[in-house]
Amino acid sequence: MFFSTEAISTFVSDWTPFCLVASYFVFSTCLYMYCSEGSIAIFWFIYMCTNFYIAGATVLEAFMSITPCREARKVVNQAEEKGWLFPTPNGQLLVLDLLIVAYLPNEQDIIMDRAIYALEQIDYPRDKIRINILYNTPKAIEPLQTELHALPERYPHARVIKVPNSTSKADNLNYFLNLDTGSDLIAIYDCDHYPHPNSPRWAVERFLADTATDIVQGRCVVLNSDDSFLASLIAVEFDKIYAVSHPGRATMWGFGLFCGSNGYWRTSLLRDLRMDGNMLTEDIDSALRAFSRGSKTVHDLNVTSYELAPTTFPAFWKQRLRWAQGWAQASMKHVKMVYDKPLKPLHEDYSRDFTARFGVLSLLLIREASYYLVTQYTCLVLSFIIAKFPRNGEQLWKLAYFQYPVSQWLFIISIICLIATLWITNQVKSEFVSRKMIVIFSILYPFYLVLSATIGLYGHARQIVRYSSWNPTARK
Asked: Does 88 reside within a domain?
Protein backbone atom coordinates (compact mmCIF):
# COMPACT_ATOMS: atom_id res chain seq x y z
CA MET A 1 0.00 0.00 0.00
CA PHE A 2 1.46 3.34 -1.09
CA PHE A 3 0.88 6.76 0.43
CA SER A 4 1.26 9.99 -1.51
CA THR A 5 3.61 12.72 -0.33
CA GLU A 6 0.61 14.97 0.24
CA ALA A 7 -1.10 12.38 2.45
CA ILE A 8 2.04 11.89 4.53
CA SER A 9 2.48 15.66 4.86
CA THR A 10 -1.13 16.07 5.98
CA PHE A 11 -0.75 13.26 8.54
CA VAL A 12 2.40 14.83 9.98
CA SER A 13 0.79 18.28 10.05
CA ASP A 14 -2.30 16.97 11.83
CA TRP A 15 -0.54 14.88 14.47
CA THR A 16 2.63 16.86 15.22
CA PRO A 17 0.75 19.43 17.39
CA PHE A 18 -0.81 16.58 19.39
CA CYS A 19 2.59 14.99 19.95
CA LEU A 20 4.07 18.32 21.02
CA VAL A 21 1.32 18.99 23.57
CA ALA A 22 1.36 15.40 24.89
CA SER A 23 5.15 15.58 25.27
CA TYR A 24 4.80 18.90 27.08
CA PHE A 25 2.45 17.41 29.68
CA VAL A 26 4.50 14.24 30.17
CA PHE A 27 7.83 16.07 30.45
CA SER A 28 6.47 18.73 32.83
CA THR A 29 4.82 16.19 35.13
CA CYS A 30 7.96 14.04 35.28
CA LEU A 31 10.13 17.09 35.91
CA TYR A 32 8.12 18.07 38.99
CA MET A 33 8.40 14.54 40.34
CA TYR A 34 12.18 14.99 40.55
CA CYS A 35 12.26 18.58 41.82
CA SER A 36 13.32 19.37 45.39
CA GLU A 37 10.77 20.47 47.99
CA GLY A 38 12.19 24.00 47.89
CA SER A 39 11.74 24.23 44.11
CA ILE A 40 8.22 22.85 44.35
CA ALA A 41 7.33 25.51 46.93
CA ILE A 42 8.56 28.27 44.61
CA PHE A 43 6.63 26.90 41.63
CA TRP A 44 3.52 26.47 43.76
CA PHE A 45 3.67 30.06 44.97
CA ILE A 46 4.15 31.39 41.42
CA TYR A 47 1.20 29.43 40.06
CA MET A 48 -1.11 30.36 42.92
CA CYS A 49 -0.17 34.05 42.52
CA THR A 50 -0.87 33.76 38.79
CA ASN A 51 -4.26 32.25 39.51
CA PHE A 52 -4.91 35.11 41.92
CA TYR A 53 -3.98 37.67 39.24
CA ILE A 54 -6.28 36.06 36.65
CA ALA A 55 -9.15 35.88 39.13
CA GLY A 56 -8.54 39.45 40.30
CA ALA A 57 -8.42 40.86 36.76
CA THR A 58 -11.60 38.96 35.91
CA VAL A 59 -13.52 40.27 38.90
CA LEU A 60 -12.33 43.84 38.22
CA GLU A 61 -13.65 43.55 34.67
CA ALA A 62 -16.91 42.23 36.10
CA PHE A 63 -17.32 45.16 38.48
CA MET A 64 -16.41 47.58 35.69
CA SER A 65 -19.21 46.07 33.60
CA ILE A 66 -21.88 47.09 36.11
CA THR A 67 -22.00 50.68 34.84
CA PRO A 68 -22.40 49.77 31.13
CA CYS A 69 -25.11 47.25 32.09
CA ARG A 70 -27.02 49.85 34.07
CA GLU A 71 -26.71 52.40 31.27
CA ALA A 72 -28.01 49.86 28.74
CA ARG A 73 -31.03 49.10 30.93
CA LYS A 74 -31.66 52.82 31.46
CA VAL A 75 -31.72 53.45 27.72
CA VAL A 76 -34.15 50.57 27.17
CA ASN A 77 -36.45 51.82 29.94
CA GLN A 78 -36.46 55.33 28.46
CA ALA A 79 -37.31 53.98 25.00
CA GLU A 80 -40.08 51.81 26.44
CA GLU A 81 -41.60 54.75 28.32
CA LYS A 82 -41.73 56.71 25.05
CA GLY A 83 -43.48 53.89 23.21
CA TRP A 84 -40.26 52.72 21.59
CA LEU A 85 -39.78 56.06 19.91
CA PHE A 86 -36.06 56.34 19.16
CA PRO A 87 -34.24 59.71 19.35
CA THR A 88 -33.47 59.99 15.63
CA PRO A 89 -36.25 60.41 13.02
CA ASN A 90 -36.23 57.72 10.34
CA GLY A 91 -35.30 60.17 7.62
CA GLN A 92 -32.08 61.14 9.43
CA LEU A 93 -30.78 57.61 10.00
CA LEU A 94 -27.54 56.42 8.46
CA VAL A 95 -27.53 54.11 5.45
CA LEU A 96 -26.67 50.57 6.52
CA ASP A 97 -25.33 47.52 4.68
CA LEU A 98 -26.04 44.42 6.77
CA LEU A 99 -23.92 41.46 5.66
CA ILE A 100 -24.78 37.81 6.29
CA VAL A 101 -21.64 35.84 5.45
CA ALA A 102 -21.98 32.13 4.70
CA TYR A 103 -19.96 29.12 3.59
CA LEU A 104 -22.75 27.38 1.76
CA PRO A 105 -21.91 23.67 2.01
CA ASN A 106 -21.62 24.00 5.78
CA GLU A 107 -24.60 26.33 6.23
CA GLN A 108 -26.95 25.29 3.47
CA ASP A 109 -29.54 24.08 5.99
CA ILE A 110 -29.83 27.43 7.77
CA ILE A 111 -29.01 30.17 5.27
CA MET A 112 -32.51 30.57 3.81
CA ASP A 113 -34.09 30.71 7.26
CA ARG A 114 -31.61 33.37 8.46
CA ALA A 115 -31.95 35.43 5.27
CA ILE A 116 -35.75 35.54 5.40
CA TYR A 117 -35.66 36.32 9.12
CA ALA A 118 -33.36 39.31 8.54
CA LEU A 119 -35.40 40.54 5.56
CA GLU A 120 -38.72 40.34 7.38
CA GLN A 121 -37.97 40.93 11.06
CA ILE A 122 -35.29 43.63 11.26
CA ASP A 123 -36.97 46.91 12.19
CA TYR A 124 -35.18 49.57 10.16
CA PRO A 125 -36.45 51.80 7.34
CA ARG A 126 -36.29 49.78 4.11
CA ASP A 127 -34.88 52.73 2.15
CA LYS A 128 -31.99 52.96 4.63
CA ILE A 129 -30.90 49.32 4.80
CA ARG A 130 -29.71 46.62 2.43
CA ILE A 131 -29.59 43.00 3.56
CA ASN A 132 -26.65 41.41 1.75
CA ILE A 133 -26.25 37.63 1.62
CA LEU A 134 -22.62 36.88 0.74
CA TYR A 135 -21.77 33.26 0.20
CA ASN A 136 -19.12 31.05 -1.33
CA THR A 137 -19.37 27.42 -2.34
CA PRO A 138 -16.97 25.02 -4.07
CA LYS A 139 -19.88 23.27 -5.79
CA ALA A 140 -23.35 24.12 -7.02
CA ILE A 141 -26.12 23.45 -4.50
CA GLU A 142 -29.55 23.47 -6.12
CA PRO A 143 -32.32 24.41 -5.87
CA LEU A 144 -31.01 26.43 -2.89
CA GLN A 145 -28.88 28.85 -4.92
CA THR A 146 -31.72 29.59 -7.32
CA GLU A 147 -34.04 30.25 -4.38
CA LEU A 148 -31.48 32.57 -2.78
CA HIS A 149 -31.00 34.61 -5.93
CA ALA A 150 -34.79 34.94 -6.28
CA LEU A 151 -35.05 36.75 -2.91
CA PRO A 152 -34.56 40.28 -4.37
CA GLU A 153 -37.72 39.77 -6.41
CA ARG A 154 -39.72 39.40 -3.17
CA TYR A 155 -37.67 41.78 -1.04
CA PRO A 156 -36.39 44.95 -2.78
CA HIS A 157 -33.88 45.59 0.02
CA ALA A 158 -32.15 42.22 -0.51
CA ARG A 159 -28.91 41.62 -2.36
CA VAL A 160 -27.52 38.11 -2.93
CA ILE A 161 -23.92 37.70 -4.04
CA LYS A 162 -22.09 34.49 -4.84
CA VAL A 163 -18.47 35.50 -4.36
CA PRO A 164 -16.28 34.10 -7.14
CA ASN A 165 -13.05 32.27 -6.30
CA SER A 166 -13.65 32.69 -2.58
CA THR A 167 -12.33 30.21 -0.04
CA SER A 168 -12.96 32.13 3.20
CA LYS A 169 -14.99 34.70 5.07
CA ALA A 170 -12.21 37.21 4.45
CA ASP A 171 -12.52 36.72 0.67
CA ASN A 172 -16.28 37.26 0.88
CA LEU A 173 -15.92 40.47 2.85
CA ASN A 174 -13.09 41.87 0.75
CA TYR A 175 -15.10 41.25 -2.42
CA PHE A 176 -18.01 43.22 -1.00
CA LEU A 177 -15.72 46.03 0.16
CA ASN A 178 -14.72 46.57 -3.48
CA LEU A 179 -18.33 47.50 -4.30
CA ASP A 180 -19.53 51.09 -4.09
CA THR A 181 -22.84 50.68 -2.27
CA GLY A 182 -23.11 54.19 -0.83
CA SER A 183 -23.56 53.01 2.75
CA ASP A 184 -22.44 54.87 5.86
CA LEU A 185 -22.14 51.74 8.01
CA ILE A 186 -21.51 48.03 7.49
CA ALA A 187 -22.78 45.37 9.90
CA ILE A 188 -21.19 41.91 9.83
CA TYR A 189 -23.04 38.75 10.88
CA ASP A 190 -22.14 35.08 10.65
CA CYS A 191 -24.81 32.97 9.02
CA ASP A 192 -26.04 31.30 12.22
CA HIS A 193 -27.13 34.60 13.81
CA TYR A 194 -30.59 35.98 14.48
CA PRO A 195 -30.10 39.74 15.07
CA HIS A 196 -32.65 41.23 17.42
CA PRO A 197 -35.08 43.30 15.32
CA ASN A 198 -34.00 46.53 17.05
CA SER A 199 -30.25 45.83 17.06
CA PRO A 200 -29.42 47.86 13.94
CA ARG A 201 -31.38 50.82 15.31
CA TRP A 202 -29.60 50.70 18.67
CA ALA A 203 -26.21 50.51 16.92
CA VAL A 204 -26.94 53.40 14.58
CA GLU A 205 -28.16 55.55 17.47
CA ARG A 206 -24.76 54.99 19.15
CA PHE A 207 -22.97 56.28 16.04
CA LEU A 208 -25.25 59.31 15.83
CA ALA A 209 -24.88 60.08 19.53
CA ASP A 210 -21.07 60.12 19.29
CA THR A 211 -19.48 60.95 15.95
CA ALA A 212 -16.10 59.75 17.27
CA THR A 213 -17.38 56.15 17.46
CA ASP A 214 -15.90 53.97 14.72
CA ILE A 215 -17.17 50.48 15.70
CA VAL A 216 -20.10 49.23 17.76
CA GLN A 217 -19.83 45.65 18.99
CA GLY A 218 -23.01 44.03 20.21
CA ARG A 219 -23.77 41.21 22.61
CA CYS A 220 -23.89 37.65 21.27
CA VAL A 221 -26.26 35.26 23.05
CA VAL A 222 -26.35 31.48 22.66
CA LEU A 223 -29.92 30.42 21.92
CA ASN A 224 -29.52 26.61 21.79
CA SER A 225 -28.45 26.14 25.42
CA ASP A 226 -30.94 23.27 25.81
CA ASP A 227 -29.53 21.25 22.91
CA SER A 228 -26.73 19.66 24.91
CA PHE A 229 -24.83 19.91 28.18
CA LEU A 230 -21.87 21.42 26.32
CA ALA A 231 -24.07 24.05 24.71
CA SER A 232 -25.37 25.07 28.15
CA LEU A 233 -21.81 25.64 29.38
CA ILE A 234 -20.98 27.70 26.29
CA ALA A 235 -24.15 29.75 26.81
CA VAL A 236 -22.99 30.71 30.32
CA GLU A 237 -19.49 31.41 29.00
CA PHE A 238 -20.89 33.74 26.31
CA ASP A 239 -22.97 35.64 28.86
CA LYS A 240 -19.85 36.03 30.96
CA ILE A 241 -17.77 37.16 27.97
CA TYR A 242 -20.16 39.44 26.09
CA ALA A 243 -22.22 40.89 28.94
CA VAL A 244 -19.46 41.13 31.55
CA SER A 245 -15.87 40.75 30.33
CA HIS A 246 -16.00 42.75 27.08
CA PRO A 247 -17.79 45.87 28.38
CA GLY A 248 -15.85 45.64 31.65
CA ARG A 249 -12.50 45.42 29.87
CA ALA A 250 -13.42 48.30 27.58
CA THR A 251 -14.20 50.43 30.63
CA MET A 252 -11.09 49.34 32.56
CA TRP A 253 -8.50 49.52 29.77
CA GLY A 254 -10.08 52.17 27.59
CA PHE A 255 -10.62 50.18 24.40
CA GLY A 256 -13.06 47.69 22.94
CA LEU A 257 -12.73 45.16 20.14
CA PHE A 258 -14.79 43.90 17.22
CA CYS A 259 -15.45 40.21 17.92
CA GLY A 260 -16.24 38.83 14.46
CA SER A 261 -20.04 38.98 14.34
CA ASN A 262 -22.77 41.41 15.38
CA GLY A 263 -20.33 44.26 14.82
CA TYR A 264 -21.03 47.58 13.08
CA TRP A 265 -18.27 49.51 11.30
CA ARG A 266 -18.04 52.88 9.66
CA THR A 267 -17.81 51.91 6.01
CA SER A 268 -14.82 54.13 5.29
CA LEU A 269 -12.75 52.50 8.06
CA LEU A 270 -13.60 48.93 7.09
CA ARG A 271 -12.88 49.61 3.42
CA ASP A 272 -9.54 51.09 4.40
CA LEU A 273 -8.51 48.17 6.63
CA ARG A 274 -10.17 45.27 4.78
CA MET A 275 -9.61 41.69 5.98
CA ASP A 276 -6.31 39.80 5.96
CA GLY A 277 -6.98 36.40 4.40
CA ASN A 278 -3.71 35.05 5.78
CA MET A 279 -5.04 35.24 9.35
CA LEU A 280 -7.13 32.40 10.77
CA THR A 281 -9.15 34.89 12.81
CA GLU A 282 -9.24 37.76 10.36
CA ASP A 283 -11.90 39.48 12.49
CA ILE A 284 -9.63 39.79 15.56
CA ASP A 285 -6.78 40.94 13.34
CA SER A 286 -8.94 43.66 11.80
CA ALA A 287 -10.12 44.71 15.27
CA LEU A 288 -6.55 45.05 16.52
CA ARG A 289 -5.46 46.91 13.38
CA ALA A 290 -8.34 49.31 13.92
CA PHE A 291 -7.33 49.82 17.55
CA SER A 292 -3.69 50.36 16.52
CA ARG A 293 -4.91 53.42 14.62
CA GLY A 294 -6.87 54.74 17.56
CA SER A 295 -10.35 53.66 16.55
CA LYS A 296 -13.07 53.97 19.17
CA THR A 297 -14.97 50.74 19.69
CA VAL A 298 -17.92 50.63 22.09
CA HIS A 299 -19.71 47.55 23.43
CA ASP A 300 -23.47 48.02 23.44
CA LEU A 301 -25.46 45.39 25.33
CA ASN A 302 -28.68 46.42 23.58
CA VAL A 303 -27.26 45.46 20.19
CA THR A 304 -28.14 41.82 20.69
CA SER A 305 -27.84 38.84 18.37
CA TYR A 306 -28.66 35.18 18.96
CA GLU A 307 -26.38 32.43 17.66
CA LEU A 308 -25.74 28.70 17.79
CA ALA A 309 -23.13 27.04 19.98
CA PRO A 310 -21.48 23.74 19.03
CA THR A 311 -23.44 20.86 20.54
CA THR A 312 -20.76 18.16 20.28
CA PHE A 313 -17.24 18.08 21.64
CA PRO A 314 -15.56 17.48 18.22
CA ALA A 315 -17.28 20.58 16.79
CA PHE A 316 -16.33 22.59 19.90
CA TRP A 317 -12.73 21.33 19.69
CA LYS A 318 -12.34 22.34 16.02
CA GLN A 319 -13.85 25.77 16.61
CA ARG A 320 -11.74 26.58 19.67
CA LEU A 321 -8.52 25.29 18.08
CA ARG A 322 -9.08 27.66 15.17
CA TRP A 323 -9.71 30.52 17.58
CA ALA A 324 -6.66 29.62 19.69
CA GLN A 325 -4.30 29.54 16.72
CA GLY A 326 -5.86 32.69 15.31
CA TRP A 327 -5.39 34.53 18.60
CA ALA A 328 -1.77 33.32 18.75
CA GLN A 329 -1.19 34.72 15.25
CA ALA A 330 -2.85 38.03 16.10
CA SER A 331 -1.00 38.33 19.41
CA MET A 332 2.39 37.80 17.80
CA LYS A 333 1.57 40.37 15.12
CA HIS A 334 0.11 43.09 17.33
CA VAL A 335 1.85 42.81 20.71
CA LYS A 336 4.14 45.61 19.49
CA MET A 337 1.29 48.00 20.35
CA VAL A 338 2.54 47.74 23.94
CA TYR A 339 5.51 49.96 23.05
CA ASP A 340 5.16 51.46 19.56
CA LYS A 341 3.50 54.70 18.45
CA PRO A 342 0.14 54.76 16.66
CA LEU A 343 0.48 54.94 12.87
CA LYS A 344 -2.01 56.93 10.80
CA PRO A 345 -4.30 57.67 13.77
CA LEU A 346 -7.95 58.14 12.89
CA HIS A 347 -8.39 60.94 15.41
CA GLU A 348 -5.93 63.82 15.67
CA ASP A 349 -5.90 63.91 19.46
CA TYR A 350 -5.32 60.15 19.87
CA SER A 351 -2.36 58.88 21.89
CA ARG A 352 -2.05 55.40 23.37
CA ASP A 353 -1.75 55.95 27.11
CA PHE A 354 -0.24 53.66 29.73
CA THR A 355 -3.59 52.13 30.68
CA ALA A 356 -4.32 51.10 27.09
CA ARG A 357 -0.79 49.73 26.63
CA PHE A 358 -1.06 47.62 29.77
CA GLY A 359 -4.46 46.44 28.56
CA VAL A 360 -2.85 45.27 25.32
CA LEU A 361 -0.12 43.53 27.33
CA SER A 362 -2.75 41.76 29.43
CA LEU A 363 -4.91 40.82 26.45
CA LEU A 364 -2.20 39.61 24.09
CA LEU A 365 0.85 38.54 26.10
CA ILE A 366 -0.32 37.69 29.62
CA ARG A 367 -3.39 35.86 28.31
CA GLU A 368 -1.29 33.71 25.98
CA ALA A 369 1.27 33.06 28.75
CA SER A 370 -1.53 32.06 31.14
CA TYR A 371 -2.05 28.86 29.13
CA TYR A 372 1.37 27.67 30.27
CA LEU A 373 0.89 28.74 33.87
CA VAL A 374 -2.49 26.99 34.16
CA THR A 375 -1.20 23.78 32.57
CA GLN A 376 2.01 23.88 34.60
CA TYR A 377 -0.07 24.04 37.77
CA THR A 378 -2.04 21.06 36.44
CA CYS A 379 1.16 19.12 35.84
CA LEU A 380 2.39 20.01 39.31
CA VAL A 381 -0.79 18.62 40.87
CA LEU A 382 -0.51 15.49 38.71
CA SER A 383 3.03 14.97 39.96
CA PHE A 384 1.76 15.18 43.55
CA ILE A 385 -0.95 12.62 42.84
CA ILE A 386 1.50 10.22 41.17
CA ALA A 387 4.33 10.62 43.69
CA LYS A 388 2.13 10.91 46.79
CA PHE A 389 -1.01 9.09 45.74
CA PRO A 390 -3.82 10.23 48.08
CA ARG A 391 -5.71 7.55 49.98
CA ASN A 392 -8.86 9.61 50.47
CA GLY A 393 -10.61 12.80 49.38
CA GLU A 394 -9.17 14.85 52.22
CA GLN A 395 -5.60 14.04 51.20
CA LEU A 396 -6.42 14.82 47.54
CA TRP A 397 -7.93 18.16 48.55
CA LYS A 398 -4.80 19.03 50.51
CA LEU A 399 -2.52 18.00 47.66
CA ALA A 400 -4.44 19.99 45.07
CA TYR A 401 -4.87 23.26 46.97
CA PHE A 402 -3.37 23.46 50.42
CA GLN A 403 0.21 22.27 50.21
CA TYR A 404 1.44 25.49 51.83
CA PRO A 405 -0.19 27.95 54.27
CA VAL A 406 -0.08 30.95 51.92
CA SER A 407 -2.01 29.02 49.29
CA GLN A 408 -5.05 28.95 51.57
CA TRP A 409 -5.45 32.72 51.37
CA LEU A 410 -4.72 32.88 47.66
CA PHE A 411 -7.19 30.08 47.01
CA ILE A 412 -9.93 31.60 49.16
CA ILE A 413 -9.53 35.04 47.59
CA SER A 414 -9.59 33.51 44.10
CA ILE A 415 -12.80 31.63 44.93
CA ILE A 416 -14.39 34.85 46.22
CA CYS A 417 -13.41 36.59 42.99
CA LEU A 418 -14.92 33.78 40.92
CA ILE A 419 -18.17 33.83 42.90
CA ALA A 420 -18.41 37.62 42.56
CA THR A 421 -17.87 37.37 38.80
CA LEU A 422 -20.52 34.69 38.40
CA TRP A 423 -22.93 36.60 40.65
CA ILE A 424 -22.62 39.60 38.33
CA THR A 425 -23.04 37.29 35.34
CA ASN A 426 -26.23 35.97 36.91
CA GLN A 427 -27.61 39.51 37.08
CA VAL A 428 -27.23 39.97 33.32
CA LYS A 429 -27.81 36.41 32.13
CA SER A 430 -29.82 35.89 28.96
CA GLU A 431 -33.23 34.28 28.81
CA PHE A 432 -31.56 31.06 27.60
CA VAL A 433 -29.39 30.66 30.72
CA SER A 434 -30.71 29.47 34.07
CA ARG A 435 -29.21 29.77 37.54
CA LYS A 436 -28.72 26.01 37.53
CA MET A 437 -26.52 26.35 34.44
CA ILE A 438 -24.46 29.04 36.16
CA VAL A 439 -24.01 26.87 39.27
CA ILE A 440 -22.90 23.89 37.17
CA PHE A 441 -20.54 26.11 35.18
CA SER A 442 -19.07 27.42 38.44
CA ILE A 443 -18.40 23.92 39.75
CA LEU A 444 -16.81 22.80 36.50
CA TYR A 445 -14.94 26.05 35.87
CA PRO A 446 -11.52 24.79 37.09
CA PHE A 447 -11.72 21.87 34.63
CA TYR A 448 -13.04 24.17 31.89
CA LEU A 449 -10.09 26.49 32.53
CA VAL A 450 -7.61 23.61 32.16
CA LEU A 451 -9.32 22.51 28.94
CA SER A 452 -9.19 26.05 27.56
CA ALA A 453 -5.50 26.32 28.45
CA THR A 454 -4.78 22.99 26.76
CA ILE A 455 -6.55 24.20 23.62
CA GLY A 456 -4.44 27.36 23.80
CA LEU A 457 -1.26 25.26 23.90
CA TYR A 458 -2.54 23.20 20.99
CA GLY A 459 -3.08 26.43 19.05
CA HIS A 460 0.53 27.45 19.74
CA ALA A 461 1.75 24.03 18.59
CA ARG A 462 -0.25 24.37 15.38
CA GLN A 463 1.28 27.77 14.80
CA ILE A 464 4.77 26.31 15.26
CA VAL A 465 4.16 23.71 12.53
CA ARG A 466 2.36 26.33 10.38
CA TYR A 467 -0.90 24.41 10.37
CA SER A 468 -3.16 26.20 7.87
CA SER A 469 -6.27 24.06 7.35
CA TRP A 470 -9.52 25.98 7.82
CA ASN A 471 -12.18 23.97 9.66
CA PRO A 472 -15.58 25.67 9.58
CA THR A 473 -17.85 25.24 12.58
CA ALA A 474 -20.60 22.69 11.95
CA ARG A 475 -24.08 24.23 11.71
CA LYS A 476 -27.51 22.66 12.02
From this structure: no
